[in-house]
Fold:
Amino acid sequence: MNQNFTKLFSYFDSPEPSKNLLEKITRRVREEQRRWAIKQRLAIFSIGLIFSVPAAILSFQLVRTEMAASGLQEFLSLIMTDSEIVMTYWQNFILIVLESLPTVSLAVFLVALFIFLESLKLLTRELKNFAPLKN
Amino acid sequence: MKNNLKDENKTMKLLISPHLKPIYGFIFQYVKNAPDAEDITQEVFVKAWRNLKKIKQKNFKAWLFSVARNTSIDFLRKKRAIPFSEFENESGENILDETLADETDLPDEILAKQNIKEQLNAAINKLPPQSRLTLLLHYKENFTFQEIAEILHEPLNTVKSRYRRATIQLKILLSQN
Structure:
């Protein structure tokens, strides 16, 4: 490096940025961080929504089939026809009804339904947060 | 949580502030107006933050200048405010430039001039944009020719020959005044 040129360039006035530029940059980076986080959550909730819909439909069909096969309807119709017997042996009756319930498919259905509703709720919330950042 | 955010803000500012003025000054040389230079500077640091994990280059400063160069050129391209060839393409250079040699230092009399500061600023602004950037990157930011070539996306020999031409032009401009 030529010494005199080095000295010469020490006289050069570099333009000064405004005092609040650093603040503006940190604010924009923060905004970008927020936007990125929202995008990530939107992706997660969308995936949750996409997978929970067919899962809920399939598990609901399974619940219906298993309920029809379990004879639960016959037990429940007892309430209407022989309500006195049901009242007398209500503890046994409840146990029988519970035993005949298709618990696994019902649990799968409820979980899928829960994921669907939660994803929908959170997705709506995140979309509301994302809208002002988009502009 | 609030403390974390404050600490993160502090770290971010510590990372940005040493590079803020040089990057702003570099961008200013492209766009020549403060509001646009500020917008582009913001964009550059947002891009830097976005790609922080992806940076493979060891020299962060040179990488940042390279991002600033690309962002400025994109901005000018969109705006179409300047003849773009002025910044990008110097393939029409005289081949003799490659062998042009003037390694002599600046005469002391020029440095001794009373109004050297004003004269220098005026002379630098008269230089072609790429020559101006080469000199400023070399003397103000202490980049090597290799780093300047990487920042400006040009061959090393082009940068070297332009540097030689720019120093000669600058000497002539300063001697004339």
